[in-house]
Amino acid sequence: MNWDDVRIFLAVARAGQILGAARRLELNHATVSRRIAALERALGAKLFRRLTTGSELTAEGERFLNVAERIEADMIAARAEIAGESDEVAGVVRIGAPDGFGVTFLAPRLGQLTERHPALSIQLVPVPRSFSLSRREADIAITVERPTEGRLVAGKLVDYTLGLYASRAYAETRGLPGTPGSSVATGL
Q1: Which of 11, 84, 170, 182 suits a disulfide with 166, CB 3.0-4.6 Å?
Q2: Does any domain span residue 183?
């Protein structure tokens, strides 16, 4: 098995399409297609379903994704160890967070972090209800619900509560719910 083919597989899995992966890798899309086909032949398994909207991992592809990510992590660790790389924090990190949390809590604090680590670039991206860390839509994700799939390290940041708020004028005009499950007739 060729490491470059595995690297290309990871790019396609993360981009969700051959063309997007080709752009990211700065390769021709036909080359990416050929390399994925070669990897599938070497493994004796179909890794992607080609759709009009992109490429979707098969069950075998999902299993191989876990292996490929471990190989990638080992390659990165080996390069760092052998090259004697310092402990400098560098690179691009994509942090996915709900809009409210990202804007009101994270964004004001990210400047301090990047001042301490000038070689670090942080991209704050809004996280929709459904997203994929394995496709590199984010490297770190902050979510309301604990993830249930994938090889992820998860930890609780804080308790989260929601409240219902209204201006006094709105409440006087429209009314307030009497209990958490009740609705108010709005006259609309």
Answers
A1: 170
A2: no
CA distance 95 to 138: 6
Instruction: Measure the CA–CA gap between 102 and 59, rounded to whole angstroms.
Output: 33
pLDDT class of 141 with cuts at 50, 70, 90: confident
- The pTM of this model reads 0.53
No. of helices (H) and no. of strands (E), the chain: 7, 5
CB-count burial class (<10 Å; 0-12, 13-18, 19+) for 148: exposed
- Residues spanned by the domain of 22: 3-83
Alpha-carbon gap, residue 73 to 40, rounded angstroms = 21
CA 124 to chain centre: 11
Residue 132 pLDDT: 60
In-domain check, residue 166: no
Q: List the beta bridge partners of residue 55.
A: 50
